Amino acid sequence: MSTNVRRPLPATAIPDGCLPWTGEQARRWIQVLPPRWVPVRWVGLPVLKVVLLTGALAALGLTEAGLPEYLAALAALHLVWLPLRPEIVRVSAPALALVAVVQRPAPVLAVVAGALLLAGGSWTIAALRLRARAAQREAALAASGGVTAPLPDADRPLGRGRLLSGLGIALILAGAPLIATAGVWNSAEDRQAAAVAGFFVAGLGATALLSGVLGRRRATALRAAPAPVLRVLMREDEHADAEVFAADDVAGLRPLFTVATTELDDDTDDDEDEADDRAKLEEVLDRLDDDQPGPLREAVLYGAPYEGAEVVLVSAAVKPGEPPVAERSSGPVRPLSEGGVRRRLKREKRTAARTAADDEQHLGLVAAARLTKTVPVRRWRAGAVDWLASVLMVQWGVWLCWAAFTDADISLWKQIVIALLGLFGAARVPVKLCWRITVDRTGLWLNGLRGTTHIPWDDVRSVRRESFELKLRWRGGESWAVSAPRWARFQRMRGRPHPYDALAAEVTAMHADPALRPTGDSEERERGRPLWPLAVLFALLWMTAVVGSEVWF
What we know:
It is built from 14 helices and 17 strands. Helix content is 53%, strand content 14%.
């Protein structure tokens, strides 16, 4: 392994005989990945939300098309299992085909053909992924040369899988009453919706429970005996996950896989360790704010990596002079295909260009803000763009209410969903209309639903406009955001910045230079009032409209 890496690993942290995972060996590992058309495990919470929403909509759609509720939920769950849990598909795909052939629900030809097509395609994709896992493991074992070493956390308590297992049990318990009480609804559509929702939620619960069990089982098996070891390079990506590279990829050009990790506890509770933990957390949060990966570091990888595997990483510390960092996986290994890396690089280039332009504008506004005179108290409040955002949200709610409740055949569960969406809007609109930021010599005062929050200057981490949002972050991982429309080209033509950009620049200048901060103390009336009374009023108006529409239409 090259010693030109920015963060070298001490020799004492490297097991005897541990070999580097070279680029040539890593390419062999990459070559056995599934074909590019096979959906591999996706990364990120937004994609997971899309997968779950797609599955739920598919279940409801299949039910309305006439499929039995349990069959519709089983078919829709395959859209979740294919990218997340191919182990389930090996059993569920044949079960889906068998149920469709035996039950033969109408329309028989379309249902049976569709079920066989979905089952066959799903089983093929799952088989390819599982076969690739075995090949990846063999390639990693060959690269290790048979060298093994005990894991640094082999004798520590293992909490892997508890969260997912608990979530799975909770979802199963939530789905069971929906299935059991589906018959109490008045209309057939409501009964079908309740039943399919119960089956789908219970299926998600079983998925989470199995994921927790598999994660814990694999983590336990990894610690049962000395594990294969490889010398690699790693860094933390913009999501704070570990990104692993070949040992000779000193430029960090081709990540092999990513894996969510958690640092091993050293079982101490003294104040110094707690302060170190807080400092590390703040360092990670600051880097996440900038969307920048961490420095490339040497590391030892324990365990043969493959899609879904559990591993342990012992890496050089980010700061020189500190001891190595040991981390266990808190999620499965996620390989990166060639196509995925290319798309990721393109996305990073676009993001970098957009970020550079935003940063240039931000620095210019900050420089201009440094020329303004200091005042006793500085205040900002919702303006025209915020009122426009509120009008758009209210208009959408009115349209939704009108379209739904003028339909005489609307089912009760749809009415409940619309009512809940309206209550969510009732909580958001007051924030959009009445937010206020007050700055005085002590820090920032921010009004919200429950009351006013005080953020001392030393606790402020960043204030920036991100896409359509004004985002304020402070220590402890806390944040506040409000969004409004933005027309970048129109603003450049007029030579006027977005109000959020101007606000962020002024606060940033004050935060960086105490001489620019206000000199006085704000009064309570200047800091804004709690917004919950207005939220309650909007909620009452919404519920009145919902109930009234039932009477009028």
